[in-house]
Amino acid sequence: MKKLLVATSLCVASISASAVITVPKYDAAAGQKIVEENCAACHGMTGTSVVPTQPNLGGQNVRYIFKQLRDFKTGYRINGIMQGQIATLNEQDLANVAGYYSEQKPWGAFAGNPATAEEAGKLFLGGDKKRGVIGCAGCHDPKGAGNAYAAFPRIGGQHAEYIGLQLKMFRAAGREDDVAKDQKRINDAAKEGEKGMMQVVAARLSDRDIKILSQFVSAVH
Question: Where does heme c 2 bind (predicted)?
C-alpha cells in the first residue's frame, strides 16, 4: 500500500506539471463516419481491434484518444500509418473520432500468464524500489482503468503485444537508444526535449519486465 501511495503521489505531480487536455465539443455521429472510412480496419468499428499490435479504443477516455490523435497530427508521436490516415482531418474531426470511440462499449480482457502473474502484479502495483521502478497502478489505476482527467489511458485488458511495443518505444526514448525516430515514443512529456514519466520508468525495465507486465496488464479488468 505504501508503494502504491508513493507512485500515486508521483503521478499527481506529473499531472500538475502538464496542462490538462481540453477536448473541443464533439459530434459522435460525425466521428462514426470518419471511423468507417479511416479507422475501422485497424481499430474496429466499435474500438475492439483484431490486430494485436493495434490498440483497442472502445471506451477509452476521450482526452487520451484526442491527445494521441493530435500528437500524430503534429508529428510529436510518430507512426506512418496513423499520420497518413489523419492527414486530411482537422482538430474538430479528431475530437469527433475521439468522442465516438470513447462512447463505445469498453473492451474485455485476456487470460494473461498465470505463471508470472504474482511477480508481474507486484511490479504493476508497487514497482521495484531497488531499481527505481515506479508501479504502473499509481497512474493507470490498480485495475488498469487509467485517469480520464489526466488523459492517462485505460490499459487493463489491452493487447499484450501493443503494450509491450509501447513500453519498448518509451524505453528506447528514455535510454536515448540510437534507433529510428519511429521506434521511440516521447509524447508522454509535456514538451519535446523533456523526459516524461513513461520514458523514465520504462528506461529501467528489462525485456522480461516488459513481457510479464504486458501479459499481466492484458488480463487486468
Answer: 136, 139-140, 198
